[in-house]
Amino acid sequence: MHALVSLHDKIFDLVDRAGTWLLPLGARFVFAATLLVYYWNSGLTKLGDGVLGIFSPSIGAYSQIFPKQLEAAGYDVSQFGILQWAVVMAGTYAEFILPLLIVIGLFTRLASLGMIGFVVVQSLTDVYGHGATDLKTLGAWFDRFSDGVILDQRLFWVFVLSILVIKGAGALSVDALLRNRRPQPVMA
Fold first, then answer.
1. Secondary structure letter of residue 79 according to DSSP
2. Is the four-CA dihedral 151, 157, 159, 165 of positive or negative sign?
3. What is the C-alpha to C-alpha distance for residues 182 and 173, in angstroms, rounded to an integer?
4. What are phi and psi of 79, to 5 degrees?
5. SS3 of 185, please?
């Protein structure tokens, strides 16, 4: 029995050590495979026409972020102020920049924390702004269904991002390259 326990410990010590670099790499891969294109496509729907569209959001941007306010304004974005423009532009840029930072592993902890905040705001906007309150869309935890878009799916998103907040980007990342290039302090 002692040999079996010893074998178990040796194997899972290796798994534990591999997990130090494999878990963050896997989390970044899962994010890239499932959410990178999702967020970039969403960001593209918010850009205005032409080259200067990166500074002039589309009406779709306002309808996604401020649905009730846009309806109240008769779908006239000229009635919106600088604050709404800044929120729309920050959200749009975040959909491009934060996923890119996560995938390449640069400022990963901060980018992942930002994405968690983004997912929370996105979910609240879906519920309160777009009225996504039906059980099929909203979902419920601890029920027999696992396909609720907001509570079920986004919990997985936040979990993957939480791994990156806790563990960082791992060994195969720009963060690791920068960390390895820093001069090490000299011990006296």
1. G
2. negative
3. 15
4. -80, -10
5. coil
Give the residue among 125, 148, 123 at the shortest CA–CA distance from 138. Answer: 148
Q: Which portions of the chain are predicted below pLDDT 70?
A: 184, 188
Q: What is the pLDDT of residue 188?
A: 64
Asked if 23 and 163 touch (Cβ cutoff 8 Å), the reply is yes
Structure confidence at residue 21 (pLDDT): 82
CA distance 113 to 101: 12
pLDDT at residue 31 in the model: 97
Here the contacts of 30-36 (C-beta below 8 Å, separation 24 or greater) are 30/160, 31/99, 31/102, 31/103, 31/160, 31/161, 31/164, 32/99, 32/102, 32/103, 35/99, 35/157, 36/99, 36/103
Please state, in angstroms and rounded to a whole number, the distance separating the CA atoms of residues 20 and 131: 41
CA 93 – CA 100 distance, rounded (Å): 11
Residue 15, classified by CB atoms within 10 Å of its CB into exposed (0-12), middle (13-18) or buried (19+), is: exposed
pLDDT of residue 17: 82
pTM for the structure as a whole: 0.86
- 142 sits in the region (left: phi over 0; alpha: psi -120 to 50; else beta) called left
pLDDT (tens digit, 9 = 90+) per residue, 41-71?
999 999 989 888 888 999 999 999 999 999 9
